[in-house]
Structures are given as structure tokens and as C-alpha cells.
Design a protein that fits this description.
The protein is mainly α and about 120 residues long. It has helices spanning about 10-30, 35-60, 65-100, 110-115.
């Protein structure tokens, strides 16, 4: 059976590249103080999560190795969605303070107060 093409976060090289790109996007968003940049990244990871979940649901003929890789990939998708959301809230707070606007949410105040 032919394996489906996917962004395989179970592969360490792919995961390393994704982490490096994530850090670069966060640095870019922090320097430009634009939360829209992190919002795009968040939606990209959500889209990947949806695609990988659909592949899992419809992939009845997958080999055990491909299924295992797909499960790990979905787990890493969830982790990237979580850290992208936290990054979005952080950059949104920076942007709101710069423009003297009300932030969407001050959800991370409890976290930053303890750090």
C-alpha cells in the first residue's frame, strides 16, 4: 500500500525545521509587534491538525508504521497549536500595550506574574 504524503512531525528533522520556523515567526512577530503574524501561524497549525486527523480517520488501509507516525504527528500538531495560541496571546498583549488598546484577553497575566 502506498503511504499518504504528509508533514511528518514524527521525523526528527521535520520537527526540528518546524520548531526553527516557529521560533523565527515568533521573533518576527515580536519585533514587528503584529499579532496577525502569529494568528496566521496558529491557523496553519490548526489546518494541519484537521488534515492529519482526516487522514487518520480515512486511512483504514495504512500500515502500522504509517499509522504510528500519523498518531505522533497529530500529537505534535496539538502541541504546536497550544504553543502557537500562547504565542498569539503574548504578541497580542505586546501589540495592545504599544497601541494603548485593550487586549483581546489578558489570559496570560497569571502566568507572567509568576515568571
Amino acid at each position: 500500500m502506498r503511504e499518504m504524503p504528509m508533514i511528518n512531525f514524527a521525523d526528527p528533522l521535520t520537527l526540528l525545521i518546524a520548531v526553527i520556523l516557529y521560533v523565527l515567526v515568533i521573533v518576527l512577530a515580536k519585533e514587528t509587534k503584529k499579532s496577525a503574524i502569529t494568528a496566521v501561524m496558529l491557523f496553519a497549525f490548526v489546518a494541519l491538525l484537521i488534515v492529519h486527523t482526516i487522514m487518520y480517520i480515512t486511512g483504514a488501509n495504512l500500515t502500522q508504521e504509517a499509522l504510528s507516525s500519523l498518531i505522533y504527528t497529530v500529537i505534535f500538531d496539538l502541541v504546536f497549536v497550544l504553543i502557537s495560541f500562547i504565542g498569539y496571546l503574548w504578541i497580542d498583549d505586546i501589540e495592545a500595550k504599544l497601541k494603548k488598546k485593550k487586549s483581546i484577553d489578558n489570559s496570560l497575566e497569571w502566568f507572567w506574574g509568576k515568571v
